Amino acid sequence: MKSEYKFSFGPWNIHSGADPFGPAVRKEVPFARKVKLCRELGFHAMQFHDDDAVPQPENKTPAQLQRAAAKIRRILEGEGLAAEFVAPRLWEHPLGIDGAYTSNDPKTRRWANERSLRAIDIARALGTKLIVLWLAREGTYLRESKNGIESYQRLLESINHMLRYDPEIEIAVEPKPNEPTDHAYLPTIGHALAMASQTSDPSRVGGLIETAHAMLAGLDPSDEMAFALSMGKLWGVHLNDQNGLKFDEDKAFGMANLRGAYNQVRILELGGYAATGRYVGLDVKALRTQKDKEALRHLSNSRRIFLALVEKVRTFDRKIEAQCVARRDYEALDLAVTEHLMGL
Ligand code: GLO
Ligand code: MG
User: Fold this and answer.
1) What does the alpha-carbon distance between residue 115 and residue 124 come to, in Å, rounded to a whole number?
2) Full pLDDT tens readout for the chain, 344 residues
3) Pocket test residue of 133, 213, 283, 298 for ligand 1, highest count of atoms within 8 A of CB
């Protein structure tokens, strides 16, 4: 199967299976091995949290930070891989318990802003200009605990702070409506791009859309993607799957909702996504039940289904589509798509 799409994942997508209810069930895979697997599985880039690349970035001198990042870059380049983006991981630090950019504590907000600049330094040292903001704990567990208006203003200030620091970086917001918070700020791509338009340089703020996050917001992921694509703002995707409204499952792409997956691929095709040079990120998790040896199938299966769906989109009979649309016979279109997916 041939395609011009480039694929990526992050080190967190090969993991030991620990969840909130139980410990690790598989061995930790060392980073260098993950990089090798990334290439062997046919991927082109790795995604990073700042501290995946440089542990405790706020405790490093600039020289130490550069050295640590350069080491990671050499490992990547040794396998012919690129770094797609760096995301400041503010949600695991004790200071970020109640959010970072939107914390009520000014000391925490200062730390978050400073650490985000270190994330930019790391990104540049790894050779990427893309910063992803997944705003994990920027929200509330209790609505009365924050002033939402102030929170949105603080988020905007923090984004502007990053844009000012480096005039070449681009920021892609990865919206998610909940988890770990009860309600998160910037829950959809509409919110993210509305805020982008208010920043000091709207041309450098866009979005990354994750399938499961859109579904958790009760929205259709392909429509979310269409919204961003229509504005030239889809700068990344985290494809995966989700079986209804529950915790963020990060299932392998297409495995719960094949028709939904087909429509995401269709919109990426219609939007010329591959030609933009942006990556198809697969933010998928192995089922906890997988044994060590078989704990990469979520990645290889997701890539395989994505490429198979590219073929399905490309081979769908456009004449039938045009006829059904002209006649407004969407029942016929529905059957044609379903049969095509079933290989009938
Ligand atoms: C969790 C998010 C998370 C981000 C990653 C990059 O729900 O999807 O995996 O994508 O931390 O910022
Ligand atoms: Mg994600």
Assistant:
1) 14
2) 445 999 999 999 999 999 999 999 999 999 999 999 999 999 999 999 999 999 999 999 999 999 999 999 999 999 999 999 999 999 999 999 999 999 999 999 999 999 999 999 999 999 999 999 999 999 999 999 999 999 999 999 999 999 999 999 999 999 999 999 999 999 999 999 999 999 999 999 999 999 999 999 999 999 999 999 999 999 999 999 999 999 999 999 999 999 999 999 999 999 999 999 999 999 999 999 999 999 999 999 999 999 999 999 999 999 999 999 999 999 999 999 999 999 99
3) 283
- Contact by Cβ (8 Å): 269, 314: yes
Q: Is the CB of 50 under 6 A from ligand 1?
A: no
Q: Which ligand is nearest to the CA of 133?
A: 1
The residue nearest atom 9 of ligand 1, judged by CA position, is 283
Residue 162 to residue 119: CA distance in whole angstroms: 10
CB atoms within 10 A of CB 85: 29
Q: List domains and CATH numbers for the chain.
A: 6-316 (3.20.20.150)
110 CA from centroid of ligand 1 (Å) = 23
Whether the Cβ atoms of residue 243 and residue 253 lie closer than 8 Å to each other: no
